[in-house]
Amino acid sequence: MEKEEMIKKMVSILADEFEVEQEAIQPEANIKETMHLDSLSLVDMVGLVNEEFGVEIKTPDLPSLKTFADLYDYVYTRL
Asked: SS3 for 9-64, per residue?
């Protein structure tokens, strides 16, 4: 899967699941702020990424995933 294709799929899935506008999901935007995530919904997001892309986000790696660009790079390098 090409990176752009993965990003489009992820934006669509996250926007639908967390009820935010796709336009709000910008590469440099903060994930937690943009999607209004608390710790429980962050776990939901991790599970969703694992389910949709087969990529397990490890708990120690979560603090480094601040922006959507961080998330895209993390997932893409593990596909």
From this structure: HHHHHHHHHHCCCHHHCCCCCEHHHHHCCCHHHHHHHHHHHHHHHCCCCCHHHHHH
CB distance 33 to 67 below 8 Å? no
- Residue 25 sits in a domain whose CATH number is 1.10.1200.10
Full-model pTM:
0.95
Domain count, the chain: 1
Taking only the tens place, the pLDDT of each residue in 30-67 is: 999 999 999 999 999 999 999 999 999 999 999 999 99
Q: What pLDDT does 27 receive?
A: 98
Domain, as residue range, for 19: 3-76
Question: To 5 degrees, how large is the angle CA 12–CA 16–CA 17?
Answer: 115
AA letter at 22:
Q
